[in-house]
Design a protein that fits this description.
Elements: E1 13-29, E2 44-59
Antiparallel strand pairs: 1-2
């Protein structure tokens, strides 16, 4: 399977799909007694387990530029991951320091 999409910076795309579906059936019975007609069902038990596994892929691209010689690597993310910005604010601005000076 192949999926092609175009996203702008900050836009997100989610794709999900069922990758595994298992059904396990366990039958327990008492030998001999479970074979009796009519009463045999009293000596049997049946258990069914269903298990579904799903894969979810979420993509949010971020445009980066290569570091120039002599540039230092940034140590902090430019913004919090998966946080909705307040109305009227720039979602791509770098957060300000919360340290107070004395």
């Amino acid at each position: 399977m192949e999926t092609n999409i175009e996203l702008g910076e900050g836009q997100s795309f989610v794709i999900a799909g069922l990758i595994d579906q298992r059904v396990n059936e366990t039958i327990c019975r008492i030998p001999g007694l479970a074979s009796l007609p009519i009463l045999g069902n009293l000596f049997k038990s049946k258990e069914v387990d269903r298990n579904n596994t799903e894969l979810i892929v979420m993509v949010t691209p971020e445009i980066t530029v290569p570091l120039q010689p002599g540039d230092t690597k940034g140590l902090v993310m430019p913004r919090d991951f998966m946080v909705t910005p307040a109305a009227g604010s720039d979602p791509y601005s770098t957060p300000k320091s919360t340290k107070k000076s004395k």
